[in-house]
Amino acid sequence: MHRRSGALVTGALLLTTALAGCAAGGSGDAAPTPTRTKAAATPGKASCHLSSGGGSVSLEETADAYRVEWKGVPTDDGGQRNTYQVQLGNEGQTKHIGLYIEFDSITGTTYGLFNSETNDVDPVPGEPDTSNGTVVGTFPKQEDIDAVYWAPSYGVVNEDGADTTWCTEDGQVLDWTPLD
């Protein structure tokens, strides 16, 4: 398990751009507030298929943790950096939690809660489970943020650059209904 900052900046910037609803080549005006799509039907549970057609992700909230499961995505590094991230955020986007798993052929696995103020991942106990062709992480709740959206992303970083896939074509966030 590693705690690192510099390597996470690329992924954080990609996700921040997606959450802000920005598009390349904008006019310089402030980015519009992101819209949410696909309401979470069951409190504390949601899932979606990646827009690339290459997998799916589900998120389940319990009284003391969040469990994230990725299916149909690589379960090892394959000689590159693979990142699996889910962000939960509140209405004003003033508080959020980033749940982060990374496989990296050079530095190993990073597993924990992404701290956007420091661009570090604060490790959590254990390792992601990669058995049965899935990537599963369980992250302890550290604070109640009254989340209303979730934003999963899967990224690959290699010598050709970075490629990130979300559950919507335009990277918009999805509705989240927390447990009562």
**Proportion of residues in helical segments:** under 10%
Described by the principal axes of the CA atoms, the overall outline is: globular
Rg on CA atoms, Å: 15 Å
Task: Give a short account of the largest sheet.
Answer: 7 strands, antiparallel
H and E string: HEEEEEEEEEEE
Average of the residue pLDDT scores: 78
* Helix vs. strand class: mainly beta
- Can you count the helices? 1
Which consecutive residue ranges, at least 5 long each, have pLDDT under 50? 1-37
Task: Indicate the topology.
Blueprint: H1 9-20, E1 45-49, E2 56-61, E3 65-71, E4 81-89, E5 96-104, E6 108-115, E7 120-123, E8 134-140, E9 149-158, E10 161-166, E11 174-175
Antiparallel strand pairs: 1-2, 2-3, 3-8, 4-5, 4-9, 5-6, 6-7, 9-10, 9-11
Provide an overview of this structure.
This protein has about 180 residues and is mainly beta. Helices cover about 5% and strands about 40% of the residues. It contains 1 helix and 11 strands; from the N terminus they run αβββββββββββ. Strands 4, 5, 6, 7, 9, 10 and 11 form a 7-stranded antiparallel sheet that branches. The chain has a 4-stranded antiparallel sheet with strand order 1-2-3-8, with no helix packed on it. Strand 2 and strand 3 form a beta hairpin. The protein is globular. The N terminus is likely disordered.
